[in-house]
Amino acid sequence: MTQPAATAPSAPPPPPPEAVGPLMRSLSVLRELTAGGGRRPVGDLVRLTGLARSTVDRVLSTLARLGYVRTEGRDAVLAPRLLELGNAYLAASELPDRLGPLADRLADELDESVSLAVPDGDGVRFVHQATRRRAMSLAFRIGDLLPAERGAPGALFADRWDAADWRRWRSRRAADPTDAGFPAVPPRRAEDGADPAAATAAGPGTDAAAPTGFEARVAAARAAGWSLDDQLIEPGLVAVAMPVHDTTGRPVCALSVVSHTSRLSAAELPDAVLPRLRETVSAMEYALSLPRDAAPGPDAAPGPSHTSHATWMRASKQELGPEFVESMARGLITLTTFGAGRAELPLTAVAEDTGLARATARRALITLEHLGYLATDGKLFRLTPKVLELGFAPLSGLTLPAVAQPHLAALVERVHDSASMAVLSGDDIQYVARVPTVRIMSVNITLGTRFPAYPTSMGRVLLADLPPAELSARLALTDLKPLTRHTVTDPEQLLAALEEVRTHGYALVDEELEEGLRSLAVPVRDRTGRVVAAVNVSTHAGRCTPAEARDALLPALRTAAAGIEADLHVAGRYARIPAL
To answer: pLDDT grade, residue 131 (50/70/90)?
Structure first.
């Protein structure tokens, strides 16, 4: 395949007359927040987007109402609920759901990191990661974008480029010789790629800078059926990738095995992994050939309700007035119409599902298509991988404490007592998040603190969720020693207390861990319903009776836990949310 000569980068096409300006402005703010790692000062957003401060304030107010952004002091911060946009694309593509378990199994068998990536323009975007925890391990996240020439999958996808695709690629390379537009990869030295037309391959890590080198790798991948990355991303990182085809023979994604030269050299890696890689690709192509389920799976998001959308829009406008921009919110909600079993939709279906007038829905779809978030054949619309650029990469790295922290802060502001989150660690609870309050008498606990589970409210919430056999065995091995004169140490009495926790959904522990300390806790459940953490409020026992504490604190605690769970369910749909 001969590449056309390099040309000067062309200006992006102007927006169509039907484009929704507020929607375009909101997306520019989300892109800048993503580029900043999920957080930027509002003043920086004004400077980077070129928008007026009042416009940015209205955008942020509307995004906050949607749950996509929150403000912390002078900063705007991406919120976990924004992940529902990327989740819609991933669910519609079905790639993580159908192929992800096979990729995970391959990673376990080879003890190497495994990725699924899809083409996105002249780049490659990750849609699934199964990484190994090592001192030197893969740091890419779902949603990260790499240049096609820097990595194994890009040569597989570039084999299908036409002359216009190659021209765009060369134009981008000329305009961005250091890959500054791809923050997920280490920057390239300007001297390696300043003149892509004249650059030549000069060894590992420099091949990607040369169009002639990339073209040769594309041809080699076509002949071999697989592609090799010999330290193209960074020194020491090597990978082998194979395409995964759908029933029409179109490569829909690439499966990569990634290692390090300290384990396997680029010459050794293919022999070590290709047999299992080929078997897994065959299994994936078979999985893609199976008919789609008629009904959405248990993890599918509930279908949109135009009635609830309309009611919510009216309420938001009444509450926020001009600070809520309806056209912006409507356009973003349009993206969530797609999902599992709804990969392609006509205009009529989008309008019906969002409760928008047909003309309004059409304008939103035209705007999103112009910006590259949707593609259409003229009748049906579908999401593109570019949707993942809207915050997915930084948010996919969230931990459970990071998800919980803003909800704990709101809880403390409401009840004026310290709030904490803990997880079960052996026979102990371990504090993973905490927001203290300022009082003359307060509970002073630091992150990482461990206490025995049996005399604590959070411990009892966590123990109560264990299967009965496991709970009985655990308590039989636990030294139930009295820590105060109130500590429950009788196994039967403790089991009865845990049954009450299971029945009522909360635990109230009064002066069992420490004299004068009262604590109330509720569970936090993941998408499967399993209790993964507990949230509590600790207070001094002398302030009120146990019943008064329960009545005053329990509603606020349950509200905080529900907020954490809602964020956790969205964030955990395709990303793993670690407890620490």
So the answer is: confident
What gap in Å lies between CA 147 and CA 145, rounded to an integer? 7
Task: Give the tokens for residue 324.
Answer: 């809520």
Angstrom distance (rounded) from CA 100 to CA 102: 5
The C-alpha torsion from 49 through 51 and 55 to 61, rounded to 10°, is: 10
DSSP 35-101: HTTTEEEHHHHHHHH---HHHHHHHHHHHHHHTSEEEETTEEEE-GGGHHHHHHHHHHH-HHHHHHH
Give the phi and the psi of residue 299 in degrees, each rounded to 5.
Answer: -90, -5
Residue with tokens 């845990």: 498
Give Cα 320 to chain centroid, integer Å: 29
Q: Which residues contact 189 (CB under 8 A, 6 or more apart)?
A: 178
d(CA 391, CA 393): 6
Does residue 272 sit in helix, strand or coil? helix
Cβ-Cβ contacts under 8 Å for 201 (sequence gap 6 or more)? 207, 209, 210, 212, 213, 216
**Average per-residue pLDDT in the chain?**
88
Q: Residue 3: pLDDT above 70?
A: no
| DSSP 8-class letter at 292 | P
List of residues 6+ apart from 304 with CB closer than 8 A: 333, 336, 337, 353, 354
The side-by-side arrangement of strands in the sheet containing 345-346 is 345-346, 380-383, 374-376
Name the pTM for this structure: 0.89
Q: Can you tell me which residue has the tokens 């954490």?
A: 564
d(CA 239, CA 21): 42
Which residues lie across from 383 on neighbouring strands?
374
Write b or e for each residue in 308-324: b if 16 or more Cβ atoms lie within 10 A of its Cβ, otherwise e. Answer: ebeebbeebbeeeeebb
Q: How far apart are CA 272 and CA 275, in angstroms?
A: 8
* Predicted confidence (pLDDT) per residue in 442-495, tens digit: 456 778 899 999 999 999 999 999 998 899 888 888 889 999 999 999 999 999
Q: In what helix (H) or strand (E) does residue 525 lie, and over which residues does it extend?
A: strand 517-525
Q: Write the CB contacts of 527 (distance below 8 Å, at least 6 apart in sequence).
A: 299, 568, 569, 572, 573
Q: Are strands 237-245 and 450-452 parallel, antiparallel or unpaired?
A: unpaired
Distance CA 313, CA 27 (A): 19
Nearest-angstrom CA–CA distance, 126 and 224: 23
Spatial separation of the C-alpha atoms in residues 563 and 414, rounded to whole Å: 14
Q: Please give the radius of gyration of the chain, using alpha carbons only, rounded to the nearest integer.
A: 27
What is the crossing angle of helices 400-415 and 546-571, to 10°?
150
pLDDT digits (tens, 9 = 90+) for 87-112: 999 999 999 999 999 999 999 999 99
